[in-house]
Write a structure and sequence with these properties.
Layout: H1 10-19, E1 26-31, H2 37-48, E2 52-57, E3 70-73, H3 86-102, H4 106-127
Parallel strand pairs: 1-2, 2-3
Length: about 130
């Protein structure tokens, strides 16, 4: 089951969902500059609850990297403009393809993963305006 923590309920709803996370669950945490303190706090809480953490971030010094079991790094720096999400989107696309490849119900799983990630992508566009 895939659940998105990026909902209209905001951080308080995400914290409620994290309070239900257990050992054997996996949190995919996505955090890029301007690293949101809420994302770091929720990632740390999931890790402390015994969940596995997969971080998608920009570099080893990212504040979520120390709380992750596995980090996937995607460069977000641009020379002249604000950060670019292109590398992160490519990483998410590759991760989605890998999940689809391994799954018996691949179309349903990919649709759920895409739906889970879409609010984050929309928020990133708004943060860089």
């Amino acid at each position: 089951v895939v659940k998105s923590l990026a909902t209209l309920g905001g951080v308080s709803e995400a914290a409620r969902q994290i309070s239900r996370i257990r050992q054997g669950d996996l949190l995919i945490s996505i955090c890029f500059p301007r690293y949101l303190a809420d994302t770091v706090t929720l990632t740390k809480s999931a890790r402390e609850a015994g969940a596995g953490v997969l971080a998608i971030t920009d570099k080893p010094t990212s504040p979520i990297a120390r709380h992750a079991d596995v980090c996937l790094y995607a460069s977000s720096e641009r020379q002249y403009l604000s950060n670019s999400e292109t590398a992160a989107l490519g990483m998410i696309e590759a991760l989605s393809a890998a999940v689809a490849h391994r799954s018996e119900n691949s179309l349903d799983d990919v649709a759920q993963l895409t739906e889970a990630v879409m609010p984050w992508l929309s928020n990133q566009d708004q943060n860089h305006d």
